[in-house]
Design goal:
Blueprint lengths: L3 H16 L4 H8 L3 H13 L15 H11 L3 E5 L6 H19 L5 E4 L3 H8 L8 E4 L13 H9 L6 E2 L10 H9 L1 H7 L7 E4 L2 E2 L6 H5 L2 H10 L3 E3 L2 E3 L5 E2 L13 H6 L2 E5 L6 H9 L5 E5 H8 L1
Parallel strand pairs: 1-11, 2-3, 2-5, 3-4, 5-10, 10-11
Antiparallel strand pairs: 6-7, 7-8, 8-9
Length: 311
């Protein structure tokens, strides 16, 4: 500092600005200097260590891991939450509770929320508080062998019970028997009404299906021949009925897209805010693919999954 007076002014300016919340114009009047002089005093106070900053990591989120993971996966936002449990179901429940608070905080009155399905989303829905008045729309048809509690229609109804908005259920199977029957179903009045809402959906919460083991409800619903074709094509993940390769590119496999009753890839991409919730180190490849696809804007996961993704 040039003098004791300058040091005093810098300290006063920095304290009034950062601690008291005073404007630079008000500080300038108090010190009888220009606003530009105040800006220089504050900058000098920071540079010389007169005032320092401590950023404390808030409870319930690992900030550094979240930032590193977002940069690594090249998605706009990642939220990494610590989970204490070891058992998969307990981890899923802990993550679901954290994700539920995030989703609730994103929603505003008058918006439309899209939901896919899965065990992780079941954990999210179970933990949701009362929500703003939003409409909820089912993004994929039902799977006959999917447990009812994790099925898309049940999840949409459960979310609808927490908001004063309307729940739009898709009364159709995820996969029709033939392309012709799929066209007939899509044209049915109630189904067409739900499908028509996809283009104006404001936010979506989706699961990520992993094609390793039994990590994808979609894969298990497909005929054996279509499963083999998907495996041969290099499918590692699904979001709704969008099939993804390891690099995130979308794969078109005959026997699926022309028979599916669900949100299309183009409609998914048109949703301005898509949150994916995923847990499990064995899903790392699938999560990477989903993030690389450009469909996902926000990933919510736990610290063990994050470590696997970073590794």
């Amino acid at each position: 500092m040039d003098s004791a007076l300058e040091a005093l002014r810098a300290t006063t300016a920095a304290r009034r600005y950062y601690v008291d919340g005073a404007t630079k114009s008000a500080i300038a009047d108090e010190l009888r200097v220009s606003r530009f002089k105040v800006a220089r005093l504050i900058d000098r106070a920071v540079k010389d260590g007169i005032i320092t900053f401590t950023v404390r990591e808030p409870a319930g989120v690992q900030v550094e891991s979240s930032l590193r993971l977002a940069a690594h996966l090249q998605v706009p936002e990642c939220v990494v939450v610590p989970t204490a449990a070891e058992a998969p179901e307990r981890r899923r429940a802990e993550l679901g509770a954290a994700a539920a608070r995030i989703v609730a905080g994103l929603l505003e009155d008058g918006q439309r929320l899209g939901i896919t399905w899965g065990r992780t989303l079941r954990a999210v829905v179970d933990a949701l508080p009362e929500l703003p008045k939003v409409d909820v729309v089912q993004l994929v048809g039902g799977l006959a062998q999917e447990p009812l509690a994790s099925g898309p229609a049940d999840l949409v109804r459960a979310v609808g019970s927490r908001t004063a908005g309307r729940a739009w259920v898709l009364h159709a199977p995820l996969l029709a028997d033939t392309p012709g029957s799929a066209r007939t179903l899509r044209a049915e009045t109630s189904i067409a009404a739900t499908l028509a809402l996809y283009g104006g959906t404001d936010r979506a919460v989706v699961g990520i299906g992993s094609w390793r083991g039994d990590g994808s409800g979609l894969r298990s619903a497909l005929p054996a021949a279509v499963q083999t074709a998907c495996d041969d094509a290099g499918v590692v993940a699904d979001v709704g009925t969008t099939l993804l390769a390891q690099d995130g590119s979308v794969l078109e496999v005959p026997g699926l897209s022309d028979r599916a009753i669900s949100v299309t890839t183009e409609e998914l991409r048109s949703i301005p805010d898509v949150t994916a919730v995923a847990v499990g180190e064995d899903r790392a490849d699938a999560v990477r693919a989903a993030c690389r696809s450009g469909i996902v804007h926000r990933l919510v996961t736990d610290h063990r999954t994050a470590e696997a993704l970073l590794g």
